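note to self: the first set is below, dont mix up w the second
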Amino acid sequence: MTRFLFLIPLILSVVWFVYLRLNGWSMRQGLKGFIYIAVFSVFIAVAYTVLLWLTGR
């Protein structure tokens, strides 16, 4: 299951991009959303890394 974790930021970014386009906003106006997606994805990656390290796998 962890091998598909790279899909989280990809899917979130595509959904955010589609949302921006449907509402007529530019990429520059939606940049903050992409930053939030990146921070959220890094947090998930760090959490899973720590959990894997703690369980000794």
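second set (the one i keep forgetting abt)
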Amino acid sequence: MPLAPTSLWHTASYTNDRGACVEVSEGPVTGVRDTKHRELGALFFAAPEWQAFLGTARRDLP
């Protein structure tokens, strides 16, 4: 499995107007990083792990 995402980075759809931004790069491997601290790197998840996270997050929204 590659250790880097295969698509361009984009701001997550739940980014707020106070600058709490997360960028993602989705594909067979999804990367997640903080837009304010890109130099710290990113977390990477296999597609099934990322889909499981999104499913859980959507169920837990108020």
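remember for set 2: The longest helix spans residues 47-59.
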